[in-house]
Amino acid sequence: MTGRIIGLGSYIPKKVVTNDDFAKFLDTSDEWITERTGIKERHIADHITEKPSTMAVEAAKKAVEDAGIDPKDIDLIVTASTTSDSVIPALSCIVQRELGVTENCGCFDVVCACPGFIVAFNTVQGFIESGNSKTALVIGTECNSNFANYEDRGTCILFGDGAGAAVLKAEDIKRNEFIMRSSGYRSDCLRCEAARQPDRWEEEGFKTATSFYMQGREVFKFAVSEVPQIIKDLAEKYSFDLENDVDYFILHQANARIIEATAKKLGIDRAKFPMNIMNYGNVSSASIPMLLAEMKQDGRLKPGMKLVLASFGAGLTWDANYIVY
Ligand code: UT7
After folding, report:
1. 50 contact partners, CB below 8 Å, separation of at least 6
2. Counted domains in the chain
């Protein structure tokens, strides 16, 4: 058994922040941000009505509606978030309550930065393959603006907020292959410490340590070398042809140049690498389900299509999946 995606949904915060808005308080410009990242604007949560929990609930409601299922059929909820507004309970429990899912449902969260959705997806697939879930909800939800350092022009311009969700239904067919990798040895180039450490509040640099810190160029180099490689390894491991057996490459939306470099290194037409980074920026674990939901809505995504999903981020971690949609 494998889980087939039967429903997709997303929640996008109302407030739009353009590159020109950043140029009002930072030494930056629309031209620099567009050229170096492909981003034109991003959506920023209001942090009161739009929290990771509330955005997860809204995205999940849409995915359930799109799937046409009764929430009572859901027997597993796994939510990925690195910017959760809830230490306890797990966001998945909040989603369960708000959707009216029965108590005969397992709920937990995963923390794995940008690849979080793929990690949650593969975790759910494991439950489905072992016969422990028949209908599951997988969510990626992020409020990156809570952790952005708005004095650091190299990072704050990249991030946006939002959530995406997918409903997976068990089917008697193999639809998911994957490779997951990580390198804790390279964790220093992308990090953020937990804010709630009262004994350290007076420590020099603690405030900035609790915002996203990134050595952009190092992360860029890591992404343009490891992402094409893991996709090549996936194709070799599961014996499929990158040119002929893949309809779309759905990559984490972190930087348009990373996506373009990956397409070039793989020798695949750039048109097979859809992007929405120009409108949303880097939404971390929500970026892949948000893009999938958008592609379903505008008709690009059709049943039976073969997709490569690939993501990378803090850890450092990077993963790739080959799925039949
Ligand atoms: O999902 C998490 C994974 N994260 C990523 O994938 C991010 C990967 N990295 C990147 O996307 C790119 O490295 C950035 C977009 C963050 C930066 O682009 P870059 O081409 O690597 O620039 P850089 O960091 O090498 O900086 C080049 C110059 C520097 O100025 P000097 O030292 O050459 O005078 C920076 O201070 O660009 C400057 N700079 C900016 N200038 C205008 C950095 N940020 C900005 C900015 N506006 N926003």
Report:
1. 11, 13, 14, 143, 161
2. 2
